[in-house]
User: Fold these one by one.
Assistant:
Number 1:
Amino acid sequence: MTASLPIAVDAMGGDRAPSEIVAGARLAKENHGIDVVLVGRSEELTDRGDLEVIEASEVIAMDAEPGSSVRRLKDSSLVRAAEAVRDGRASAMVSAGNTGATMASALLRMGRIKGVSRPAIATLLPAPGTTPTVLLDAGANAECKPEWLAQFGQMGAVFAQDRLNIPAPRVGLLSIGEEPGKGSPLVKETYAEMQTVNWGAAEFIGNVEGRDLLTDEVDVVVTDGFTGNVALKTLEGALKNLMLALFSAMGERPEAAEAAAQLGPEFDQIYRFFHPDTYGGAMLLGVKGVCVISHGSSGAQAMENAIKVAAEMVEAKVVEHLTEAIAG
Amino acid sequence: MTASLPIAVDAMGGDRAPSEIVAGARLAKENHGIDVVLVGRSEELTDRGDLEVIEASEVIAMDAEPGSSVRRLKDSSLVRAAEAVRDGRASAMVSAGNTGATMASALLRMGRIKGVSRPAIATLLPAPGTTPTVLLDAGANAECKPEWLAQFGQMGAVFAQDRLNIPAPRVGLLSIGEEPGKGSPLVKETYAEMQTVNWGAAEFIGNVEGRDLLTDEVDVVVTDGFTGNVALKTLEGALKNLMLALFSAMGERPEAAEAAAQLGPEFDQIYRFFHPDTYGGAMLLGVKGVCVISHGSSGAQAMENAIKVAAEMVEAKVVEHLTEAIAG
């Protein structure tokens, strides 16, 4: 029974590793009763309390070339974390480290689910007043084929069901116009491909646009990893810069600054709502195991959330459901 | 002398045509002394005051297929507006109508600047505390070649000089990582191409990311029309949804609603700063004439701004400068 296995946490990955990672792992255990095993250099994990450690002597740097690092650094925390899942010592892996190396470790050590052409990164976007929107691929595959994108849609639908409890997710294809004929050649071919796919309980609703991402118009948005990553970073930048501009404007007039101070709880609420850390990281869909990828800048709370998501996804049997959806 | 010619305004194009378009044209004349000629059905332009009209009996619908419409509707306001520029009866054209048909009219009637592979749509993105960022292509070419993108960079640099008075614009290539090796095959090839281009006073600064769009990191961001349009609409949606979420949050607590009411001027300032209408529309770069494309939803003030931008671009001799940059 997978749920009794611990979550393997890459203790060495992330801008604030190992201290914040270890702190997040402890929070996950204390606040949610989740069993966690740290992966890394035990001598550097002195604050680990009673958490167990899987030894790994090497660390893949945040800016290292993913493929060659994973092949070369066989005793790295990322590779060992993926192996722990493969070998049945852990139920899932979580890392805030090098995203490309996390994907490569998971792909090479766990392997692909049968029938999956390419794993994709699924991320959640906050949508005011409704469930978040699943965006995939958020950056795993800079260049895609129509069949891969259609499969991303199937995997994203399963993820929306298991992660967000949406029974019949609406799947949209990101384009530059709603009509079927709009978009790049890739999008047009993908549109045709997506009309032939078995969607199970989900539904393909056609093209959607960038302005639909944070709304209730769609549940799962499919795009290639290049466009998805640009859209994701554009969103993050827009939200940050709008908030900064607002605070700057409010600082210019004394009465405004006073009124703004009254709005502390509301600004805090909005900040949290739109902050990526709130959503517990992205998930690599299509590998034989749960792999959660947290922001490189993750602090303890972001890691706690990411570990909680990983445990929930194990519990929800998302890998089994993905396997069934792709086989079906 | 081009500056003495009127600006041709497509009176029939846009969701709020003709009334708001005509009102905007009158504002441009009254507030800025800009000579305007309306293009459309004079019998429907009863509020035109003393503005002159170039007769055009047909209208290209907002959702019509661009290419065939322009070929078929030879007496449409869009086609006649482009012809007015070609024939020396107007110095520039402005339309809030069908974007694809506006591009097609300008391209087919004015023709391309010698050496230009493909015209591109340049749009301005608000960057708090600094000059706006030029984004191109914002949607003219869903699929691009590396050489086209490099040329978009050259044209964008000229536009930044003439429109934003930036003497030495920093040109960046939109990608999913700052390192030269990051991105799609198109981006990697374009990077190499952009290193060989003659930048004049401008400078190619390498890859930039979605989060840089609204910042002072870069002046001109080059991308294909698919990615550019997705980024633009993602930005518009993010700003709208963040503002909505903020207002909604502030309405839940009576003290917050009171404080928010005090911040009216600041919210208004931010709203205007980020609103697309403030920037006077996008410009089609690479055709033999000034062609300004305003939002389909443009009201009188957006049209006034767009007409003012068109007049300024004629005055700045942007077409001459583009011609020199591409020839050089």
Number 2:
Amino acid sequence: MSKAISIFDTTLRDGTQGEGISLSADDKLKIAQKLDYLGVHYIEGGIPGSNSKDIEFFKRVQTLGLSAKITAFGSTRRKDSAAHTDANLQRIIESGAAAATLVGKSWDFHVHTALQTSLEENLAMIYDSVAFLKQSGLEVIFDAEHFFDGYKHNPEYAVSVMQKAAEAGADWLVMCDTNGGTMPHEVHGIITALSSNLTNVQLGIHTHNDCELAVANTLSAIQAGARQVQGTMNGYGERCGNANLCSVIPNLQLKLGFECLEEKALAQLSNVARYVSEVANVNMPVNQPYVGSAAFAHKGGIHVSAILRDSRTYEHIQPELVGNKQRVLVSDLAGQSNIVSKAQEMGIDFDATSPPAREVIDKIKNLEHQGYQFEGADASLELLIREANGQVRELFTFESFKILVEKTAGRSVVSEAFVKINIAGTSLYTAAEGNGPVNALDNALRKTLVQHFPSLKDMHLSDYKVRVLDEKDATAAKVRVLIESKNYEDSWSTVGVSENVIEASWEALVDSFRYALLEASPDEQILTPSIANPGLHNH
Amino acid sequence: MSKAISIFDTTLRDGTQGEGISLSADDKLKIAQKLDYLGVHYIEGGIPGSNSKDIEFFKRVQTLGLSAKITAFGSTRRKDSAAHTDANLQRIIESGAAAATLVGKSWDFHVHTALQTSLEENLAMIYDSVAFLKQSGLEVIFDAEHFFDGYKHNPEYAVSVMQKAAEAGADWLVMCDTNGGTMPHEVHGIITALSSNLTNVQLGIHTHNDCELAVANTLSAIQAGARQVQGTMNGYGERCGNANLCSVIPNLQLKLGFECLEEKALAQLSNVARYVSEVANVNMPVNQPYVGSAAFAHKGGIHVSAILRDSRTYEHIQPELVGNKQRVLVSDLAGQSNIVSKAQEMGIDFDATSPPAREVIDKIKNLEHQGYQFEGADASLELLIREANGQVRELFTFESFKILVEKTAGRSVVSEAFVKINIAGTSLYTAAEGNGPVNALDNALRKTLVQHFPSLKDMHLSDYKVRVLDEKDATAAKVRVLIESKNYEDSWSTVGVSENVIEASWEALVDSFRYALLEASPDEQILTPSIANPGLHNH
């Protein structure tokens, strides 16, 4: 039997059913590109019949030239109607996706309770829908919902559902543990029994993590003969999530000898997993298997000394195989190699032993020690590297800021910011109000800068995160602020750290504007002699 | 074969090896009480040979009268020495624990590389240490480190290690997958093979989650004949964590028919899991299986309508069996029953249909809709319920506050707060500095209040968390602040929400002081006629 496994990613569809996961069409396109780069075989983009965001995704993804097959999700036709008049099936075809994931019922209880139709009509719904999509030229992946529960209650019917989909020409028959309640030995037993009833079909597996067994159930299914895995990055998905591809793939490839991704792509798994968590705006748990920052971190004293003798003593794989790294220290210092490779990405040839390289590496280590974190703040990191290379021309300098927040019983809180910066030798003093102190600071700084650098008009803050670093120290603890900014073309992230939330926010804000100005025309300010709020100037 | 499973909790030992998990002796004692209430059979408290915090735990836990056996962790004696002179073994005995968890090597590679001794000496270390602890009257649980890796490389030696521990009288032989790299089918195969070489021993299983298979491997081991499970609450532990008891226990009991806990105790699992995450100061992932707040939350439209017809359609168990609840709405409104039961805890008989009950339920729903969250803010919730019952006597009222944050290039940032409150008809105006604006506010409010209510002297803030609620709205988004406060006896949590981080912090701060004053003597302020900062008063 072949060792090749087809990887079907449903982060953009089932993943977004998870609580707190919401992706715009832009976010989905960004993630699709990364998944394609990783080499997954199918990318399920969404439900074209459900909303305009998904329709936009399917339209725009066609222009990206991806290698992965794009697949659109939908249900079998409605009961007692024809497939070719079904609006949802029509939308799948119109989406332009090369493949359709068609979900149908395989548990008799659901046919009666949820669909409220007969077992025969459900079989007809499946046959008609698969056949119609096949006639329309699509590859069809048939997802049998609640297959394992269905098989346990009425094995004959569950098997007949699969047979019907196969007869109609489905390319893949996927067994879904929709409620996530099946045990690994049951998965193995049921698939083995099903296989004896079906020939010449390709089987797939789709599991949920309600019993913390989604990965184990997926492995069980593959060991029983399934050859497609449906799952999501970081295990996002409805309720407790789907099978986590970031664990399934290395288990299959490194432990069980199956082929999922190219070796080189597997070494990007941690990067892609972190990227997806950033775009989804969900913190990645430090202890996430394989790709989490603590997955190869050694804290115990005995462990550390043994690890230093031979890393096989306490590591089940080489972390580099999945793009992760060993950490034996308490502190989480960025490796030199990371910084050098980041510089290379920016087109700077950075010899790790040169004085500017040493300087910036020491500076970054020192900043990380203070609580800065550059994994989510690429623009701040780029500014540090360019600074060390003499590539940053400061177009404004900071002189001072003041924040006033005032609240009187029965009235709304008032927040004001007063910012003084220097542009080309002139002190400029501006005041602004805001919804809160940081918003007021942003408004004040922006007000002055836009007058001098009109390209900044298109820029706005798109994300703001606050993390208390040592929460046990209560209100005197350090705070880390991450800001994401956008213009029409680009987005970038910056970081600030301080015991003072206002100062940390200011740092991240200033870095964001400095980064935006890296590309500004040197003469831009000359084009805008008019100056805002002349009354507030302080020459 | 018996269906009874012995539950061995190592949250207090292996759990604290996890990154970001740090427990004081007080924290450990609180968690031990909850675990005992749940009915776990063993509580591993720590390593008495390692630090004074653990020694304090073992001393104080004896006064609590717990039913669970307390066990102390340590390694086999040092090579080439005697067990009775071994300082670590001595400390285990001195700890007063009823049981010892003794870890020994079972992988030949580790004996050579980490211990740097002979295979024979390692067997002697195991035999001598087990025998010495048994002679000292302790129950001995032998943890065979890296058992599965050891068995794969040298099965004869791994088996001889187990035989040696059994000969010396060990009560349990526990197979540890220390690096977490073993697959479920390997666990089953190796245990089946081992069992054929051992008779009359009780086997246990200790797994790690490096492949996201710790729960599956534990189930495999039990299905192969093991009868003790070592794991942690919420799966805390070194690197990717240990087997998560919050998933293992319901899987064994509700899915596979084993007996772990009393049914009534199992229905407290979600509460205890959340309590442990609060004490450990780690956010519980919403999608955590069985006990997470999204474990039975339904977002998909089709799912919700089916769930309303019959909850078995999309739920693998009744959530109440593990003390969790179904959530079918988009919003996360506190159920009436929660509020009524919370009131009962406070000794208030709250008929859900009475006008004050209706009023407080509506108010809480409204606040949750605005972003408040009371699961982590019990004191704010108690204040709302007592208010509705006319049980809150306000000892001070808010008049106004001002915050000034000032930063000039090259100088440190300065934060000042000006707070005006009214106590018994007198306006009191105070100023204070702080490390940041919230710290300044805390200092100013505290300065005035302590003068009038000296019992507040013992109170301090112990935790401060900031969460941006809709991060996509950047700096104009809402912010939720959670504050935990402590005095010598008690700790309590309060919440504030606003678009303005300062206002949200102020709300949570004020609630914290109001809660502290609930118990204050009504005449306390008369005892303290002296008034702080007379110059700042505003009569």
